[in-house]
Amino acid sequence: MGFGLLAVPVLAGPWFFGAWEMWWFWPFACFIFAATLVLGVRLMLPGQARAAGGGNRRPQQVRRLLLLSFAPFFVYALVRVLQAGVYMDAERSFLLLLTPFLVAAHIVFGFTRAQTLWIAALVIADLALLGLYGLVNHAVTGSALVMWAPGYPTYMSEHRATGSYFCPDHFSGSMELALCLALGFILDRDSKWSWRAGAAALAGIALAGIILSKSRGGGLTVLVIGAAALVWGFSQWPPLTRWCYRVSALSLAGIGLILFVQFAGSYTERFGRYFGWQRSQDRPWPEKRDIAVRTIMSTTRGRMIGAALRAWRENPVAGIGPGMHQNIWPHVAASPDGDRETGRWPSRLNNEFVSYEVHSDWVQLLEEYGLIGLALLLIPFCSVFHVLRNGLLRSIRERERSSLRRYARGRQALTLGAMLAVAAMTFHSFGDFNLQMPATTWLLAVMLAVPICLLTSHSRAAPQK
User: Domain limits of the chain?
Assistant: First the structure.
């Protein structure tokens, strides 16, 4: 029952426009709450507490420490929610952080090994279908339709693919997760060739979706994923072989990037407009840098980030409150170059559009939760990454043990995919709000929870020396 309740929002959420609107978010959130209730009842039953988490006989110390690492942030966030001026917006902000945590906690503490592998397989299939739908829909309708709803004219005029999301940048975000999983299986030394073939097809779908979305953040994130894959993806090979693979992969990636820049004119033009490359040609480097900074800050995204930072300075320690960005926006949106006494209007006004999200998850976290919230959230962030990294290194050391190889098959691929996903979302979140999309956070939660569950329970199947 818990598996079914949890699978519904994870697998169906992306198909309902990422569950961003409240009338889609709340039904899926209720499924997550019901699954959490089932897990709680199960843990309270006699004899079930030790069986939770796949019947792990090993003490749950790592899992419990990970669970406790989130506690300070959620306690602080709840206190800030109760202090917020607009409770509904604060509640949504809190639940965007709580629901993926509940998804991950249920997998780590409530799923058996078979259920863990099943949810991973279903997520991979779901991401492949999401990508195929985005490609087919763009080829047939030009993304004029997003599922059954009409798409935004702005994105249609730019001929950008949106998939099942209204925004092409968020479609790109989901495809970045698919690319991370695909690279995990492609680079895993123990992957079957049939798995590699399927992963290569998934990588092709993901890259095509990112390219057709024309997301600048998505394009830069692909480079970050590639760099992370070069560092972590070949670490299981002997040193000489490892560096040969890295040099070969880097050379092929460089050739591919050159060809892409030559033939993807409309995509590269979007980068040029954003960074002011046309205006800074034949200028010395300091002028090019200044023009790029002014151009970025004059864009819609730059104005939202600048306004959020101005709002944060009003209360840098505790922040302005969860979900309060859109409510404070009219007061801080205007550029600070106006002067009421002399009657000089700001160069950028605050009446042109409404900013519901900052378009930077990190800046919005800092603005709304302050330095305290950012510091408290970095604790579990670093803890999760530490467990994944140590698990990957341990898997590399243990792969020589033939008794573990079959049991661990796929575990290293999923761990590498999770580490790449952390790198991708960490980087892309500096310039977009993929993690404000509930369905994307639920998919990411599954990608992180599955390898953690496998890494903290795999030793029970290993024979004793």
Answer: 2-236+358-461
What are the pLDDT digits (tens) for 222-261? 999 999 999 888 888 888 888 888 888 888 888 888 887 7
User: What dihedral do alpha carbons 383, 388, 392, 394 form, nearest 10°?
Assistant: 50
* CA distances from residue 66 to 60, 178, 454 in whole angstroms, order as listed: 10, 25, 14
CA distance 99 to 438: 8
Beta-ladder partners of 149: 146
Helices 216-232 and 411-428 cross at an angle (nearest 10°) of 140
Contact 446, 102 (CB under 8 A): no
pTM score, whole prediction? 0.88
Residue by residue, DSSP assigns 245-289 as HHHHHHHHHHHHHHHHHHH-HHHHHHHHHHHTTTTTTT--HHHHH
Q: pLDDT per residue over 296-355, tens digit each? A: 666 778 888 888 999 999 999 999 999 898 888 888 888 787 777 888 888 777 777 788
Question: Distance (Å, rounded) from C-alpha 444 to C-alpha 181?
Answer: 11
* CA dist 211 → 176, 237, 277 (Å): 11, 31, 21
- Residue 279's Cβ-count burial label (10 Å; 0-12, 13-18, 19+) is middle
- The kind and range of the H/E element at 320 are none
Amino acid letter for position 293:
V
Distance (Å, whole) CA 409 – CA 144: 42
